[in-house]
Amino acid sequence: MRRALAEEVKRSLRTDFIRIFKENERVLREAGWIVTDEKSPRWWDGVESIDELLISSILVQMTKWETVKRILQKMREKGVNSLERLAELSEEEIGELIRQANFYKTKAKRLKSLASLASSIGVEKLVKDEGMLKEIEGIGDETAEAILLFAGNVPVFPRSNYAKKVLSRVLGIELSKEEAKELIEELFGKDLFNLKLVHAGIVTVGKLYCFSKPKCNSCVFKELCKYYTVSRNETV
Ligand code: SF4
């Protein structure tokens, strides 16, 4: 399906996605994304370092982002917001620190493994190694790819259900998660800033508008979305 997209369509998608997301930085912020420098770790709202980004990637699973931010703040105040410091703590001590997170005991165990691995091979190396990341329980394809992109600055587009749903509706063709990923990587190549911006933007659209019953009238994508155009014509 994807290969059938004409070069002209791909060109306009490239231009439209970047224009729309840059024009709507405020909306992205509502969904927890900060549009900032290409290599900054601060794209995830409230995260201040690569270590915090890795810690929050474990904490956020089944937990609200506001709670993750509160835990990070507490860790900062206690001086344990780094993997090196967490590696020195026991699972029980980490559990106490992150008690506000859902499934905190499981997450304490995962953080301990992550911290130990990072201490032995180095954070900089770990965040660029997908295979090693996925050896840690709780880090699957999507989380590993998000870490590669936002912490390792590796130009990959993280696969996600949001990208699958939003891009399928926008293009009016059913895409798998892998096809959605391949399409964005084909459109934006190794452009780190645009890969980050487009991931943040598409997740924002998925989180704020593109539900089972989508809120198309408020959506930043409605001008180019096939689903919206077709459903609007049907109701006229
Ligand atoms: S316009 Fe509607 S269907 Fe299209 S991406 Fe936005 S919310 Fe989803």
From TrEMBL:
The entry's keywords: 4Fe-4S, Coiled coil, Endonuclease, Hydrolase, Iron, Iron-sulfur, Metal-binding, Nuclease
Source organism superkingdom: Archaea
Domain HhH-GPD: start-end pairs: 59-208
Signal peptide location: none
GO biological process, one term: base-excision repair
Stretches of the chain forming a coiled coil according to its record: 72-100
GO MF annotations, alphabetized: 4 iron, 4 sulfur cluster binding; endonuclease activity; metal ion binding
UniProt xrefs under Pfam families: HhH-GPD
Keyword Metal-binding set for record: yes
Name used for this protein in its record: DNA endonuclease III
Organism in which the protein naturally occurs: Stygiolobus caldivivus
